[in-house]
Amino acid sequence: MVLQKVLADKTSRVDLNEVSKGMYLYHVSSGEERITSGKLVVE
Q1: Could you give the CA distance from residue 17 to residue 1 in angstroms, rounded to a whole number?
Q2: Which residues make Cβ contacts (< 8 Å) with residue 34, sequence separation at least 6?
Q3: How many Cβ atoms from other residues are within 10 Å of residue 14's Cβ?
Q4: pTM of the predicted model as reported, rounded to 2 decimal places
Q5: pLDDT at 5 > cutoff 90
Q6: pLDDT digits (tens, 9 = 90+) for 7-39
């Protein structure tokens, strides 16, 4: 795991300045329920 963050609002920003370039998979969940997931490319 590269990053784990608690999202407090409907809209949240995640600082990726310290993350290496590449492709990452993400998911957003609430408890055991997965809300969404996808791919993120950091260039």
Answers
A1: 16
A2: 27, 28
A3: 10
A4: 0.70
A5: no
A6: 888 888 888 888 999 999 999 998 899 999 999
Q: Is residue 40 part of a domain?
A: yes
The token duo for 13 is: 């920003």
Q: How many domains does the chain have?
A: 1
User: Taking Cα atoms as reference points, which of 4, 17, 8, 13 lies closest to residue 43?
Assistant: 17
Domain extent for 31: 19-43
Query: Which DSSP string do the residues of the chain spell out, in sequence order?
Result: --------SSS-----TTSPSEEEEEEEEETTEEEEEEEEEE-
